[in-house]
Each structure stands twice: as structure tokens, then as C-alpha cells.
Amino acid sequence: MSSTAAAITGAVVFGWLGMVVGISFIEAPLKFRAPGITIPLGLGIGRLVFRALNTVEAVLAVTALLAVFLGGAPAAVLGLTIAVAAILLVQVALVRPPLSRRTDRALAGEELPRSRAHFGYVGLEVGKVVCLLILGVLVVSL
């Protein structure tokens, strides 16, 4: 893998990792513990934050994919990059739509139990973090 492609991929991957950890595992759970934050307010904020996060993640995924494809990355790096992009695609295309519909219902005042789709999203986030961490370590060790 060229040194330029490795540098770009490493920067993208570790930036992406930091965003996911900061938002998904720090901001999101803590938001609901803040004084005065109601469930509808927290859901409204979360919807905006995750829409923005997923948009930035899509840009980072495309950038990483281009860098590894054009930079002659080894198979492990290429495979992990594709895996991370696929996880993001599953989250955005398959898991977020039901969560968005559920948020709409909650914002309309309906009392709802915790969603299984939410647990699926969190599980995918954990998988994405693991893949990004391994990918970052691989890229910087090239």
C-alpha cells in the first residue's frame, strides 16, 4: 500500500473511530441523564446528531474505500474497509428506518417499550468500532 494511501486511510479510520465512540458510546447515553432532558427532547436531538454522524461516516467510508482501492492495499485492509462500509450501509438502510418510524411515534406522544432495532444498531456500532480499530492498527503498521 502506498504511503500516501496508508496515511489517508489511517487518518480517516481513526477520525471515524473517534466520532463513533464519542457520539454513540459517550454522548448518546449521557444525553438522557442530563437535567431537564425529556425522552422526546433526547430523541429529537439524537435524530439530528445521528443523521449528521451517518452523513459524515458515508463520506469517510467513500474516502477510505477510494484510498485502499487506489493505494494497492493488502487483502486484509481491503476486506476490513469493505466490512466497515457494509456495516454502515446496513445501519443506514435497514436499521435506521424502523428506528426513525419509532421516534416519530414517540415524538407524537406514544408510550413505547425499548426497541429491539435499537439493540441491533448498538450491536452494529460495536462491530464497527472493532473493525475500525483493527483496520487502523493494520494500516499504521504497514
Structure description:
- This protein is mainly alpha-helical.
- The protein has one domain (3-140).
- Helices cover 84% and strands 0% of the residues.
- It contains 4 helices and no strands.
- Helix 2 (39-70) packs antiparallel against helix 3.
- The mean pLDDT is 94.
- This is Transmembrane protein.
- The chain crosses the membrane at residues 6-27, 48-70, 76-95, 119-140.
- Keywords: Membrane, Transmembrane, Transmembrane helix.
Oligomerization status of the protein chains: single chain
Distance between the termini: 7 Å
Order of helices and strands: HHHH
The assigned structural class equals mainly alpha
Beta-strand residue percentage? under 5%
List keywords for this structure.
142 residues, mainly alpha, elongated, transmembrane helix, Transmembrane protein, membrane, transmembrane
In short:
The protein is an all-alpha fold. The protein contains 4 helices and no strands.
